[in-house]
Amino acid sequence: MSLKSYAVIGEKLGHSMSPAIHRQMLDMIDVDGVYGILEIAREDVPKIVDSLKVLGYAGVNVTVPYKQMIMPYLDDIDADAKAIGAINTIDFKDGKAIGYNTDCYGFTTMLKVADIDVKDKDCVLVGGGGAGFAIIAAFRNCGAKSVRVFDINDEQLAKAKEQFPFIETYNFLTQKELCKGDILANATPIGMYPKCDASILTKEELAAGGFEAVADVVYNPLETRLVSYAKELGLKSCAGLWMLVYQAMRSEEIWQGMEIPTQYAVPIHTKLKKNFV
Predict the structure, then answer these.
(1) Which long-range contacts (CB under 8 A, 24 or more apart) does 198-205 make?
(2) Predicted model pTM
(3) 24-29, long-range: CB < 8 A, 24+ apart
(4) Which of 71, 136, 224, 246 could lock onto 106 through a cystine, CB 3.0 to 4.6 A?
């Protein structure tokens, strides 16, 4: 069996943990493959898919800021990814590039690990970009009562509203006081290394919001300031490392055409945690 090539593509990937996750997972499922990093400029997005085909890649992950930008250049898009409006995984088969979204699965599974139930709950999302789209879809799929989306970019909010007409949209700079509900999710890079002291809400604002649970997609640091605030207030919480591992696992399932036991995520998560000690 020939060596399979995989990679993550994005604009700036110096701190990406995808190679470490996928290399360990490939070993665990006994697949002879390599996984690398491909940093590409925005102007190269239109031709990257064809280039990857020529180079013989079996699959790639797609990260910010290309999760939506790359979609027009794919041969096909999975129905769930179309409904989400963003992709993070490309599978190359029979000369075609097919887009999928595993972020939604990753976020949903992270909530389950943390015992956070969004059914019939008022959900609030800060950050309406590519990852945000997957979270909106996850909230919808899990039976949320309502979804309110906050962002500083009105154009991005308009795109989110077009993709998901059922949501309510708010400008985070001018309507932050309306950031209240049952479940809060952060899909922005606020609080990410090296600006670890930053948080979308202060501890007082989080308490005033009436939330019962907080989910943060940021995984570096392992516990963001927002998550630490949630713990101090006695709220349920989860951080992005579980989402990162589970979305990667789902990508491997797509590429390999196999089901991977969910418990495989545990040793990968445990090993990755050591990077933050």
Answers:
(1) 198/225, 199/224, 199/225, 199/226, 199/229, 200/126, 200/172, 200/226, 201/226, 201/229, 202/229, 203/229, 203/232, 203/233, 205/176, 205/179
(2) 0.94
(3) 24/267, 24/268, 24/271, 25/248, 25/249, 25/252, 25/260, 25/264, 25/268, 26/252, 28/264, 28/267, 28/268, 29/252, 29/256, 29/258, 29/260, 29/264
(4) 246
Residue 112 is a catalytic residue: no
> Residue 91, Cα to own-chain centre: how many angstroms?
18
pLDDT at 277 over 60: no
Give per-residue pLDDT as tens, 132-148.
Answer: 999 999 999 999 999 99
pLDDT band at 206, cuts 50/70/90?
very high
CA gap 242, 207 in Å, rounded: 25
Cross-strand bridge partners of residue 146: 122
pLDDT per residue as tens digits for the range 77-134: 999 999 999 999 999 999 999 999 999 999 999 999 999 999 999 999 999 987 899 9
Residue 50 CA to residue 54 CA, distance in Å, equals 6
Residues 148-196: tens digit of each pLDDT: 999 999 999 999 999 999 999 999 999 999 999 999 999 999 999 899 9
